[in-house]
Amino acid sequence: MTKPPTSKPLLQDADRPVRSRPRKPRNPAQPNLPLDPMPDRIDPCLALLKLKPPKGPQWTFEVKWDGYRLAVHIEPTGVRILTRGGHDWTDRFPAIAAEARRLPVATAILDGEAVVFDERGRSDFGRLQQSLGGRGGKRMSREAVLMAFDLLYFDGRDIRQTELTSRRHLLEGLVPAGGEEAIRLSEEIEADGDILLRIACEHELEGIVAKDRNGPYRSGRGGEWLKIKCIQSDGFLIVGYEKSTASFGGIGRLLLAARKGSDLVYVGGVGTGFNERSASELREQMDKLTIGKPAVDTGRKRNAVFIDPKLVAEIEYRAWTHDGKLRHASYKGLRDAQDHTEVYDLSATASWMQ
Asked: What is the pTM of this model?
Protein backbone atom coordinates (compact mmCIF):
# COMPACT_ATOMS: atom_id res chain seq x y z
CA MET A 1 0.00 0.00 0.00
CA THR A 2 1.43 3.39 -0.99
CA LYS A 3 1.23 6.37 1.31
CA PRO A 4 -1.68 8.66 0.32
CA PRO A 5 -0.63 11.99 -1.21
CA THR A 6 -0.19 14.93 1.14
CA SER A 7 -0.95 17.73 -1.29
CA LYS A 8 -4.00 19.20 0.45
CA PRO A 9 -2.31 19.97 3.81
CA LEU A 10 0.36 21.91 1.87
CA LEU A 11 -2.33 24.39 0.82
CA GLN A 12 -2.88 25.39 4.46
CA ASP A 13 -1.10 28.15 6.35
CA ALA A 14 2.39 26.85 7.10
CA ASP A 15 2.19 28.18 10.69
CA ARG A 16 -1.02 26.36 11.50
CA PRO A 17 -0.99 22.72 12.61
CA VAL A 18 -2.58 20.31 10.18
CA ARG A 19 -5.87 18.89 11.46
CA SER A 20 -8.26 16.39 9.95
CA ARG A 21 -11.72 17.59 8.99
CA PRO A 22 -14.46 16.89 11.56
CA ARG A 23 -16.16 13.59 10.87
CA LYS A 24 -19.72 13.72 9.58
CA PRO A 25 -22.39 11.68 11.42
CA ARG A 26 -22.90 8.29 9.87
CA ASN A 27 -25.96 7.86 7.66
CA PRO A 28 -28.01 5.10 9.37
CA ALA A 29 -29.18 3.93 5.93
CA GLN A 30 -25.65 2.84 5.09
CA PRO A 31 -24.88 -0.84 5.75
CA ASN A 32 -22.55 -1.72 8.63
CA LEU A 33 -19.21 -3.23 7.60
CA PRO A 34 -18.03 -6.23 9.60
CA LEU A 35 -15.43 -5.28 12.21
CA ASP A 36 -12.40 -7.23 13.40
CA PRO A 37 -12.64 -8.27 17.05
CA MET A 38 -10.45 -6.05 19.18
CA PRO A 39 -7.68 -8.13 20.79
CA ASP A 40 -7.74 -8.12 24.58
CA ARG A 41 -3.93 -8.12 24.61
CA ILE A 42 -1.12 -8.33 22.03
CA ASP A 43 2.38 -9.60 22.75
CA PRO A 44 4.75 -6.87 21.52
CA CYS A 45 7.06 -7.01 18.54
CA LEU A 46 10.61 -7.10 19.90
CA ALA A 47 13.83 -5.89 18.30
CA LEU A 48 16.79 -8.15 17.63
CA LEU A 49 20.10 -6.83 18.94
CA LYS A 50 22.71 -6.18 16.24
CA LEU A 51 26.14 -4.59 16.33
CA LYS A 52 25.70 -2.50 13.15
CA PRO A 53 22.74 -0.80 11.43
CA PRO A 54 21.32 -2.61 8.39
CA LYS A 55 21.73 -1.30 4.85
CA GLY A 56 19.07 -0.85 2.19
CA PRO A 57 16.15 1.41 1.30
CA GLN A 58 13.62 -0.81 3.08
CA TRP A 59 14.95 0.21 6.51
CA THR A 60 13.73 3.22 8.47
CA PHE A 61 15.18 4.42 11.77
CA GLU A 62 14.00 5.80 15.10
CA VAL A 63 15.60 6.73 18.41
CA LYS A 64 15.73 3.87 20.93
CA TRP A 65 13.78 4.95 24.01
CA ASP A 66 14.73 3.84 27.50
CA GLY A 67 11.60 3.18 29.54
CA TYR A 68 8.64 0.82 29.94
CA ARG A 69 7.00 -0.77 26.90
CA LEU A 70 3.25 -0.09 26.95
CA ALA A 71 0.18 -0.84 24.85
CA VAL A 72 -2.60 1.75 25.03
CA HIS A 73 -6.03 0.27 24.30
CA ILE A 74 -8.69 2.83 23.39
CA GLU A 75 -12.03 1.05 23.69
CA PRO A 76 -15.70 2.09 23.69
CA THR A 77 -15.76 1.51 27.46
CA GLY A 78 -12.62 3.54 28.17
CA VAL A 79 -8.82 3.37 28.05
CA ARG A 80 -6.55 0.56 29.27
CA ILE A 81 -2.76 0.81 29.54
CA LEU A 82 -1.04 -2.57 29.63
CA THR A 83 2.59 -3.40 30.39
CA ARG A 84 4.61 -5.79 28.29
CA GLY A 85 3.64 -8.56 30.70
CA GLY A 86 -0.09 -7.78 30.38
CA HIS A 87 -0.55 -5.97 33.70
CA ASP A 88 -3.04 -3.09 33.82
CA TRP A 89 -1.19 0.10 34.75
CA THR A 90 -3.84 2.58 33.62
CA ASP A 91 -4.01 4.22 37.03
CA ARG A 92 -0.23 4.64 37.16
CA PHE A 93 -0.06 6.76 34.00
CA PRO A 94 -2.95 9.22 34.41
CA ALA A 95 -1.61 11.82 31.97
CA ILE A 96 -1.14 9.24 29.21
CA ALA A 97 -4.61 7.80 29.85
CA ALA A 98 -6.21 11.26 29.76
CA GLU A 99 -4.45 12.12 26.50
CA ALA A 100 -5.53 8.77 24.97
CA ARG A 101 -9.15 9.67 25.66
CA ARG A 102 -8.71 12.87 23.66
CA LEU A 103 -7.35 11.19 20.53
CA PRO A 104 -9.71 11.44 17.52
CA VAL A 105 -10.46 7.73 17.22
CA ALA A 106 -13.21 5.39 18.42
CA THR A 107 -11.05 2.29 18.94
CA ALA A 108 -7.31 1.81 18.66
CA ILE A 109 -4.27 0.04 20.11
CA LEU A 110 -1.07 2.11 20.25
CA ASP A 111 2.35 0.58 20.84
CA GLY A 112 4.99 2.72 22.48
CA GLU A 113 7.41 3.37 25.32
CA ALA A 114 6.69 5.33 28.50
CA VAL A 115 9.66 7.57 29.28
CA VAL A 116 10.71 10.42 31.54
CA PHE A 117 13.12 12.96 30.04
CA ASP A 118 16.16 14.52 31.68
CA GLU A 119 17.24 18.17 31.33
CA ARG A 120 18.82 17.43 27.94
CA GLY A 121 15.75 15.75 26.51
CA ARG A 122 17.06 12.18 26.81
CA SER A 123 14.90 9.35 28.12
CA ASP A 124 16.09 8.36 31.60
CA PHE A 125 15.07 4.96 32.95
CA GLY A 126 16.12 5.86 36.51
CA ARG A 127 13.88 8.93 36.53
CA LEU A 128 10.96 6.90 35.24
CA GLN A 129 11.48 4.37 38.04
CA GLN A 130 11.61 7.12 40.65
CA SER A 131 8.46 8.74 39.29
CA LEU A 132 6.66 5.40 39.79
CA GLY A 133 7.96 4.96 43.33
CA GLY A 134 10.72 2.45 42.58
CA ARG A 135 10.44 -1.27 42.01
CA GLY A 136 7.18 -2.54 43.49
CA GLY A 137 6.03 1.05 44.09
CA LYS A 138 2.45 2.10 43.47
CA ARG A 139 2.97 5.78 42.73
CA MET A 140 1.37 7.50 39.75
CA SER A 141 3.76 9.01 37.20
CA ARG A 142 2.46 12.32 35.93
CA GLU A 143 5.81 13.07 34.28
CA ALA A 144 5.79 10.04 31.98
CA VAL A 145 5.26 10.54 28.25
CA LEU A 146 4.29 7.80 25.79
CA MET A 147 6.50 7.84 22.70
CA ALA A 148 4.12 6.11 20.27
CA PHE A 149 5.80 4.22 17.42
CA ASP A 150 3.15 1.85 16.04
CA LEU A 151 -0.57 1.39 15.58
CA LEU A 152 -1.97 -2.14 15.74
CA TYR A 153 -5.73 -1.65 15.69
CA PHE A 154 -7.63 1.28 14.20
CA ASP A 155 -11.36 2.04 14.17
CA GLY A 156 -12.51 -1.56 14.14
CA ARG A 157 -9.68 -2.92 11.99
CA ASP A 158 -6.82 -5.16 13.03
CA ILE A 159 -3.98 -3.73 10.93
CA ARG A 160 -1.07 -5.84 12.16
CA GLN A 161 -0.69 -7.53 8.76
CA THR A 162 -0.50 -4.16 7.00
CA GLU A 163 3.00 -2.94 6.16
CA LEU A 164 4.71 -0.56 8.58
CA THR A 165 4.54 2.39 6.15
CA SER A 166 0.74 2.32 6.17
CA ARG A 167 0.46 1.75 9.91
CA ARG A 168 2.74 4.72 10.49
CA HIS A 169 0.67 6.90 8.15
CA LEU A 170 -2.45 6.19 10.22
CA LEU A 171 -0.53 6.73 13.47
CA GLU A 172 0.70 10.13 12.28
CA GLY A 173 -2.92 11.12 11.69
CA LEU A 174 -3.67 10.41 15.35
CA VAL A 175 -0.46 11.68 16.94
CA PRO A 176 1.02 14.55 14.91
CA ALA A 177 4.77 15.05 14.90
CA GLY A 178 6.28 17.68 17.17
CA GLY A 179 3.61 17.52 19.87
CA GLU A 180 4.24 18.29 23.54
CA GLU A 181 1.40 16.25 24.99
CA ALA A 182 1.55 13.11 27.14
CA ILE A 183 1.39 11.01 23.94
CA ARG A 184 3.97 11.99 21.32
CA LEU A 185 5.07 10.55 18.02
CA SER A 186 8.37 8.68 17.90
CA GLU A 187 9.47 10.19 14.64
CA GLU A 188 11.08 8.32 11.76
CA ILE A 189 14.50 9.65 10.81
CA GLU A 190 15.62 9.60 7.20
CA ALA A 191 19.37 9.04 7.44
CA ASP A 192 22.16 6.60 6.83
CA GLY A 193 22.14 4.13 9.72
CA ASP A 194 25.85 4.39 10.49
CA ILE A 195 25.75 8.18 10.57
CA LEU A 196 22.60 8.22 12.70
CA LEU A 197 24.12 5.77 15.20
CA ARG A 198 27.22 7.92 15.51
CA ILE A 199 25.13 11.04 16.16
CA ALA A 200 22.97 9.18 18.69
CA CYS A 201 26.06 8.03 20.56
CA GLU A 202 27.58 11.53 20.51
CA HIS A 203 24.38 12.79 22.17
CA GLU A 204 24.63 9.98 24.75
CA LEU A 205 21.40 8.32 23.65
CA GLU A 206 20.90 4.59 24.21
CA GLY A 207 20.94 3.79 20.50
CA ILE A 208 18.66 3.46 17.47
CA VAL A 209 16.02 1.06 16.16
CA ALA A 210 15.80 -0.04 12.52
CA LYS A 211 12.45 -1.21 11.12
CA ASP A 212 11.50 -2.87 7.84
CA ARG A 213 9.13 -0.47 6.06
CA ASN A 214 7.35 -3.37 4.34
CA GLY A 215 7.10 -5.64 7.37
CA PRO A 216 3.93 -6.63 9.23
CA TYR A 217 3.64 -6.42 13.02
CA ARG A 218 4.62 -9.79 14.46
CA SER A 219 4.86 -10.58 18.16
CA GLY A 220 8.30 -11.72 19.32
CA ARG A 221 11.67 -11.26 17.61
CA GLY A 222 10.93 -11.99 13.96
CA GLY A 223 13.65 -9.73 12.55
CA GLU A 224 11.42 -6.93 11.25
CA TRP A 225 12.83 -4.68 13.99
CA LEU A 226 16.51 -4.40 14.94
CA LYS A 227 18.15 -2.47 17.79
CA ILE A 228 21.69 -1.10 17.71
CA LYS A 229 22.99 0.27 21.01
CA CYS A 230 25.63 2.86 21.82
CA ILE A 231 26.12 1.39 25.28
CA GLN A 232 24.98 -2.11 26.13
CA SER A 233 22.18 -2.22 28.70
CA ASP A 234 20.63 -5.45 29.94
CA GLY A 235 18.97 -7.06 32.93
CA PHE A 236 21.04 -9.12 35.39
CA LEU A 237 20.02 -10.93 38.56
CA ILE A 238 21.37 -9.61 41.84
CA VAL A 239 22.82 -12.52 43.81
CA GLY A 240 24.37 -10.46 46.62
CA TYR A 241 26.38 -7.38 47.55
CA GLU A 242 29.60 -6.43 49.25
CA LYS A 243 29.14 -4.21 52.30
CA SER A 244 30.85 -0.84 52.60
CA THR A 245 30.57 1.82 55.30
CA ALA A 246 31.64 4.52 52.85
CA SER A 247 28.96 3.96 50.18
CA PHE A 248 25.30 4.89 49.81
CA GLY A 249 23.09 2.31 51.51
CA GLY A 250 26.15 0.45 52.70
CA ILE A 251 26.42 -1.12 49.23
CA GLY A 252 29.99 -1.34 48.03
CA ARG A 253 29.29 -3.48 45.00
CA LEU A 254 26.39 -5.54 43.68
CA LEU A 255 27.13 -9.13 42.67
CA LEU A 256 25.42 -10.06 39.41
CA ALA A 257 24.49 -13.18 37.47
CA ALA A 258 23.23 -13.96 33.97
CA ARG A 259 21.41 -17.01 32.70
CA LYS A 260 22.98 -19.72 30.60
CA GLY A 261 20.11 -21.95 29.68
CA SER A 262 18.63 -23.10 32.99
CA ASP A 263 21.77 -22.23 34.99
CA LEU A 264 23.04 -19.02 36.55
CA VAL A 265 26.55 -17.73 35.87
CA TYR A 266 28.36 -15.05 37.89
CA VAL A 267 29.28 -12.11 35.63
CA GLY A 268 30.98 -9.73 38.06
CA GLY A 269 29.82 -6.72 40.00
CA VAL A 270 28.83 -3.09 39.77
CA GLY A 271 29.72 -0.35 42.23
CA THR A 272 28.71 2.83 40.40
CA GLY A 273 25.47 4.48 39.31
CA PHE A 274 23.87 4.71 42.77
CA ASN A 275 22.62 7.80 44.52
CA GLU A 276 21.43 8.03 48.12
CA ARG A 277 17.80 7.40 47.22
CA SER A 278 18.27 4.52 44.79
CA ALA A 279 20.77 2.79 47.08
CA SER A 280 18.43 3.10 50.06
CA GLU A 281 15.49 1.65 48.11
CA LEU A 282 17.67 -1.15 46.74
CA ARG A 283 19.04 -2.04 50.18
CA GLU A 284 15.50 -2.23 51.57
CA GLN A 285 14.53 -4.69 48.82
CA MET A 286 17.67 -6.83 49.28
CA ASP A 287 17.34 -7.04 53.06
CA LYS A 288 14.07 -8.95 52.57
CA LEU A 289 15.79 -11.63 50.46
CA THR A 290 19.00 -12.51 52.36
CA ILE A 291 20.09 -16.16 52.29
CA GLY A 292 22.92 -18.06 53.98
CA LYS A 293 24.66 -19.50 50.91
CA PRO A 294 25.18 -17.92 47.48
CA ALA A 295 22.88 -19.09 44.69
CA VAL A 296 25.88 -19.11 42.33
CA ASP A 297 29.63 -19.37 42.77
CA THR A 298 30.95 -15.81 43.05
CA GLY A 299 34.45 -16.73 44.12
CA ARG A 300 35.87 -15.55 47.44
CA LYS A 301 34.24 -12.30 48.53
CA ARG A 302 34.91 -10.26 51.67
CA ASN A 303 31.98 -8.79 53.63
CA ALA A 304 29.50 -10.28 51.17
CA VAL A 305 25.78 -10.64 51.83
CA PHE A 306 23.98 -13.11 49.55
CA ILE A 307 20.37 -12.80 48.46
CA ASP A 308 17.77 -14.93 46.74
CA PRO A 309 18.12 -14.04 43.03
CA LYS A 310 14.72 -12.45 42.50
CA LEU A 311 15.69 -8.83 41.78
CA VAL A 312 16.65 -7.82 38.24
CA ALA A 313 18.94 -4.82 37.88
CA GLU A 314 19.26 -2.87 34.64
CA ILE A 315 22.99 -2.50 34.05
CA GLU A 316 24.86 -0.38 31.50
CA TYR A 317 28.23 -1.72 30.40
CA ARG A 318 30.80 -1.16 27.69
CA ALA A 319 31.97 -4.68 26.93
CA TRP A 320 32.84 -8.12 28.33
CA THR A 321 36.24 -9.12 29.72
CA HIS A 322 38.03 -12.18 28.37
CA ASP A 323 36.85 -14.21 31.38
CA GLY A 324 33.17 -13.34 30.94
CA LYS A 325 32.74 -10.40 33.35
CA LEU A 326 31.01 -7.08 32.73
CA ARG A 327 33.36 -4.22 31.89
CA HIS A 328 32.75 -0.59 32.97
CA ALA A 329 29.36 -1.46 34.44
CA SER A 330 26.96 1.08 35.95
CA TYR A 331 23.69 0.54 37.83
CA LYS A 332 20.59 2.11 36.24
CA GLY A 333 17.76 0.81 38.42
CA LEU A 334 15.64 -2.19 39.32
CA ARG A 335 13.35 -3.66 36.71
CA ASP A 336 9.80 -4.32 37.86
CA ALA A 337 8.54 -7.88 37.65
CA GLN A 338 5.37 -6.58 35.97
CA ASP A 339 7.50 -5.21 33.14
CA HIS A 340 8.01 -8.82 31.99
CA THR A 341 11.71 -8.47 32.65
CA GLU A 342 14.24 -10.46 30.67
CA VAL A 343 17.51 -11.60 32.25
CA TYR A 344 20.57 -11.61 29.98
CA ASP A 345 21.17 -15.08 28.53
CA LEU A 346 24.80 -15.90 27.79
CA SER A 347 23.82 -18.74 25.48
CA ALA A 348 22.26 -16.19 23.08
CA THR A 349 25.35 -13.94 22.91
CA ALA A 350 26.78 -15.49 19.76
CA SER A 351 23.61 -14.94 17.76
CA TRP A 352 23.50 -11.13 18.10
CA MET A 353 27.22 -10.65 17.58
CA GLN A 354 26.96 -11.87 13.99
From this structure: 0.71
Catalytic residues: 64
116 CB-near residues (< 8 Å, 6+ apart): 67, 123, 124, 127, 128, 131, 141, 143, 144, 145
Specify the 3-state DSSP secondary structure of 16: coil
Catalogue all structural domains in the chain, each as residue range(s) with its CATH number. 39-229 (3.30.470.30), 232-352 (2.40.50.140)
The tens digit of pLDDT for each residue in 168-185 reads: 999 999 998 888 899 999
Q: Is the pLDDT of residue 317 over 60?
A: yes
Residue 64 pLDDT greater than 90, yes or no: yes
Residue 281 sits at φ, ψ, to 5 deg, of -65, -40
Distance of CA 144 to the CA centre of its chain: 12
pLDDT of residue 293 exceeding 70, the answer is yes
Listing DSSP states for 253-310 in one string gives EEEEEEEETTEEEEEEEE--S--HHHHHHHHHHHHTSEESS-SS---S-TTEEEE-S-
Work out the burial of residue 182: count CB atoms within 10 Å of its CB; fewer than 13 is exposed, 13-18 middle, 19 or more buried: buried
